[in-house]
Sequence to fold (130 residues):
Amino acid sequence: MTTAFSLIYVTFPDDETALSVGRTVVTERLAACANILGRILSVYWWDGRVNQEGEVALLFKTRADLSALLIDRVRALHPYTCPCIVSVPIGDGNPAFLEWLAAETMPAPCGRADDPGMAEPSAYPDSSTG
Fold:
């Protein structure tokens, strides 16, 4: 069986928040890597008007079977009411890199993140890290 992988794209209000959430998710092995891409300018609709704000973009690299857990964890840590958290499948890549990515993430979950038997985000290792 071939392992599937995903990139999870997230925006944050500032570098400190992106680094804190990125470090937490990688420490908990929900992702093998978090790339903080730096400042971006976002133009978006919110509260009935067009807004323009500086944000910080972050990419997580993970296995597809961990995407739902990672998304739930980021939502729990994120300061926004409705954060941008989207998953993009990785179609292909450097085989050695993808092997590393698989090896550096947690073992496959026994259920889905929305499964009642799955741990709540507060039960994850190092959940006190903000």
The helical segments are 15-27, 67-77, 95-103.
